[in-house]
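TICKET: design request
STATUS: open
ATTACHED STRUCTURE:
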């Protein structure tokens, strides 16, 4: 085997094994998704069913991608190990075989679906139509580039072809750029809500929506970080970039699956979450403070009443006086 491709062949072998391990994790997440749907106490909505079908589509596409890579590796290293010129020659000759093109197409469609879900989740978190429109335009442009890359992989070597290499850099850069923007927007918004409502309602309120783990999952941060690492390795021409491509491709399916599980379990941020937390804040702010003087000794009793009922209160009594009488009533706010 020529030394120039020895690192690539080893990296490809390692990458295929990593994808098989991560594929098992996705299978577990998929069964958790179905279980979350079946265990819902409320009636399943069309949105819930759509998310399960979406997760099913990701699993099927990932199955195609993993299977084709595994079959190609078997053909190259086992079945045709005596091919003239060795594994390098086989890779050059059969990189455009039909099932490899199918696997490439499945992987890119899976990336497009994952990015589309992130665009939708970003709109939910921001609740701003302008954000959704701008991000949708970027998403459509990225999907167009991905389609061109599939065409290029059908006519030349996906790994070393000049057109595939150029389109690969362009497509990967656009995908990672879009996902970085989406991750940043979601992380920033949830972090802002975490600080704001933590200050207003206490650190324990809304933790299921704005905790560090929630922000990491909601923003698909692992997928974005792995994609950035792959882009750096690919841009500098490292033969180990295929390992990071395999990891990034698997996280393309795993990260959305984790988001879907949170949505079905009722732990993800929705368009009603902000209204719910804001309503709680308003109930605590609009309160009535009542102070009662007990007798001539100056003993006092203070109660804080919410407009919807008792919100919170404190009592300070010194039982040294006689019959209580109303002293004054002052509107105020809970501090």
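STATUS: resolved
RESOLUTION: sequence designed for all positions
ATTACHED SEQUENCE:
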């Amino acid at each position: 085997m020529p030394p120039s491709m020895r690192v690539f062949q080893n990296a490809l072998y390692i990458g295929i094994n990593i994808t098989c391990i991560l594929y098992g994790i996705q299978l577990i997440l998929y069964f958790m998704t179905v279980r979350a749907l079946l265990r819902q106490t409320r009636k399943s909505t069309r949105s819930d069913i759509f998310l399960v079908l979406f997760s099913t589509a990701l699993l099927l596409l990932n199955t195609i991608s993993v299977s084709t890579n595994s079959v190609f590796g078997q053909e190259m290293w086992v079945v045709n190990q005596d091919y003239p010129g060795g594994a390098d020659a086989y890779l050059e000759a059969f990189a455009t075989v039909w099932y490899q093109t199918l696997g490439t197409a499945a992987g890119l469609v899976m990336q497009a679906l994952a990015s589309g879900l992130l665009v939708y989740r970003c709109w939910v978190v921001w609740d701003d139509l302008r954000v959704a429109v701008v991000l949708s335009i970027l998403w459509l442009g990225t999907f167009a580039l991905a389609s061109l890359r599939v065409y290029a992989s059908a006519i030349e070597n996906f790994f070393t072809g000049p057109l595939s290499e150029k389109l690969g850099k362009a497509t990967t850069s656009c995908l990672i750029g879009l996902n970085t923007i989406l991750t940043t927007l979601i992380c920033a918004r949830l972090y802002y809500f975490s600080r704001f409502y933590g200050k207003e309602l206490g650190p324990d309120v809304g933790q299921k929506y704005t905790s560090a783990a929630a922000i990491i999952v909601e923003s698909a941060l692992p997928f974005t970080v792995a994609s950035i690492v792959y882009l750096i390795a690919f841009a500098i021409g490292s033969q180990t970039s295929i390992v990071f491509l395999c990891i990034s491709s698997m996280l393309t399916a795993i990260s959305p699956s984790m988001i879907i599980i949170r949505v079905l379990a009722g732990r993800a941020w929705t368009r009603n979450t902000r209204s719910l937390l804001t309503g709680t804040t308003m109930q605590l702010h609009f309160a009535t403070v009542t102070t009662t003087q007990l007798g001539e000794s100056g003993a006092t009793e203070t109660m804080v009443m919410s407009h919807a009922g008792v919100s919170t209160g404190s009592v300070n009594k010194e039982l040294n006086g006689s019959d209580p009488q109303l002293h004054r009533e002052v509107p105020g706010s809970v501090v």
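CLOSING REMARK: Residues 88 and 247 are 23 Å apart (CA to CA). Strands lie at 287-294, 299-306, 309-310, 324-332.
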